[in-house]
User: Fold this.
Amino acid sequence: MAFSPTELLAIARTVALEAGELVARRRSEGVTVAATKSTSIDVVTLADRECEEFVKARLAQLRPEDGFYGEEGSDSTGTSGLTWILDPIDGTVNYLYDIPQYAVSIAVVEGVADPASWKQLAGVVYNPAIEDLYYGSVGGGAFQEWNGTITQLRVNEETLLAHALFATGFGYSAEVRSEQAHVLTTILPAVRDIRRAGAASLDLCAVASGRLDGYFERGTKPWDHAAGSLVAREAGAVVGGLNGAPEGESMLVATNKQLFPEIEKLLIK
Ligand code: IPD
Assistant:
């Protein structure tokens, strides 16, 4: 099946808006925790599962030959060479507490759900709580659609680490959290401040839109960042791991090209 990043983006956008509507409706009806995953604080809600089933079925209608990789366990290879990567609700803990900072994140890549080898094609991050939509396609730029206005996104030009506002995330494992706490002892004194808003995809879009100067986190999975990292890249961010590695579980950093080596030095320490 032939594809163009723009057409794939249009599909991702349509499905993300539909899925977001479902997620918001379920939120207003009350949230039920269905299970826990990696640790007792890593929750899955019924809405996470329902949203994943919905998106999987919609994409199977629209792009039956593509593969699919979702946070809640769906994994199929397909025959087209493309893979859709879904986080049905990124920021599940915010969703649970009705903090309006969560998103449906849908990306499509050539290859499999692995930043070491994928070619990113298109991505959409949609926060249905405030109807805030971010999207991008490779070579096509990054955009935000909010309140009837479409804005092309561009990362901040800030060059001084001491004036840079970063965000991070902590994951759900006690071991990763202890390391994050340790890393913060070096980074916090060196930057303007650190935010922890609770949804990696939206943190990456905040870097794209200049509401943050940068973001770093250890332990993210492809579904957390596949769409947001494309949006950030298309807005001019450098996104990667440490020492030239691709972004991945060991580290994900997104910031402008001047700040990347500065924050990288501190993260390597
Ligand atoms: C989590 C959020 C959080 C980040 C975690 C992710 P989830 O995703 O993006 O901000 O710190 O690493 O796992 O569990 O809400 O889909």
